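Kindly inspect this one:
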Amino acid sequence: MQKSTNTKVYRIKKFTSRMQARLLLVFCVVTLLLAGLIGRLIYIMQTDGERYAKQVLSRQSYVRGVLPYKRGEILDRNGSVLARSELRYRLILDPENLLINSDKIPTTLAALKEYYGVEAETVNIILENSPNSRYKILLDNLQLAEVEDFKKLLKNDENIKGLWFEEKYVRSYPYDSLACDILGFTSADNRGYWGIEEYYNDELNGTNGKEFGYYDSSLNIERIIKKPEHGNTVVSTIDVNVQRIIQKHIREFNEEFGSKNIGILVMDPNNGDIIAMASNHEYNLNSPRDLEGIYSKEELSSMTLEEKIEAMNRLWKNDIISYGFEPGSTFKPFTVAIGLEEGLISKNSTFLCDGVEHVGGWDIQCSARYGHGTITLAESLMKSCNDAMMQIAAMEGRDNFYRYQKYFSFGQKTGVDLPGEESGIITSLDKLNASELATASFGQTFNVTMLQMAAGYSSLVNGGYYYQPRVVKEILNDKNATVKKIEPLLIRRTVSEETSEFIQETMYQTVELGTAKPARVEGYTIGGKTGTAEKFPRNNGTYVVSFLGASPAINPEVVIFVVIDEPQNVARQDDSSIATKLSSRILNELLPALGIYPEGEIDYLLGEDIITDNSNQGEESRDNTQESGDNQGEEAGDSTQGSENNQGEDSEDSTEESGDN
């Protein structure tokens, strides 16, 4: 057989001359078309390039920065504006846009010169150095009256290009330094520092808007705006008139006498509202970093940057909630209330004061060196008897005493809606030995803030209800609709109605017939207790004097706490009448401002036996001497004999801190 084989045969085509000629023809045609297109483009650019450039730009979108929100206002309890954000304007130059419209440069420069006095050279330098920039600030902080006419000109005159206004808000405080401790201030970027501005920063701030848009064929701006969401308004519990009164009296006292510091706090005992608070350290909220007027030029020139920052932080700190001190005899009503609540004493209890108590190996003396003799429970407060307080505290024991200190929020923050609150320092239970307990009974060996004392005292005189202190009661939106109601917050019941009634009555008797007589205000009933605390180091002659009171004396509507740290140019610093007299002057103006009117004395609370007893002692003839003498011994001179070496290390440190502050 013969085997067959299949074989494929391939033909190779040749690139003929005819094909080459056709390819060359296509190449030449394409080259001629490209050359014609390039020529046409060159012709267009030379003859009509500007018009086409504008048409291209008209198809470009832009985002021109942000539209700022308006930070919410802060109002007082009656609607007076304490802080606001005021609208201001920046005049912005768009160099690139102006250079594209180069034929409009002369008219634009002339308008700037006419309306704002901006020299042509100023604008030309910007155009030369930043030709591609879209944003250069020409003028800043312009008010509405300064921009209205020029805005109309920009809208109606097509010969002015490359200019527009940008809105911004500037924080303003109409009353300058009024309520500076409470309000705080803001930075340029709307961040709150201290006070309500910091604590309620998120409520006060809003959300920025944006502006989108494009240029039309004439390079006019077509805008699309996303509006900003403005911040909420905060309604505070502060009364601007009461705040003005207390700050005025602080200034007047320092002009007449002087002090290291003064703190004044005014509260509504029935809901925890802080009506006013202030200290020595005022600063202008519109220029919070300006230390001129507070320090001399010589002092400022010698201060380093770190020292200036430290000085500013001291200035901004709210002493009412962050300054610690020993309360002294203003704590005695608390000691009595604890004994009454635990049933260890009664209104009819009597005590023998022989001038000294031997406790924990120490002789701790009373203010009356030879003793008050046999006195009632009410008289123990009226005469500010240390001996009786130590006897009461011994009956209570350290467990009860420590537990009630916690009930009244000593040693812990009150929870006030302000930043920077301190907790104070109380002697821990394991260190609350006999001598510490004895001295603590009259307000020594532990550390408190003014707010803690005022809030606790409010519960003693309002029926026994402890309310969390607050400075804000309502949040409104930018349409003045209520967003949030902040209701008074009842924390706990501290004492019974019966105990509260006894404290109210006895505090009234203390002002009318006891150690707090200079606190009286004609026509009004005032109840309260004085305090005198010797600062560390002991026996150095420096004191804190105070008055903690309320009005009306029965069912009070206002609590006031006045604390003077190291009064100057006085006969003796340990004279509590310095504080009671200042309190009287303040209350004389403050009470009518709050709509609290004269009611006269409550004679039935001044029992004949009390009046007779005080008359026999010749109290009226030696008001101030008795007060200062009593209160000097109450918490200061002699009583420290038993407490100075025995108090807990923590409370000693805190008192030294108090002295430094």
Remarks:
- Residues 611-661 have pLDDT under 50 and may be disordered.
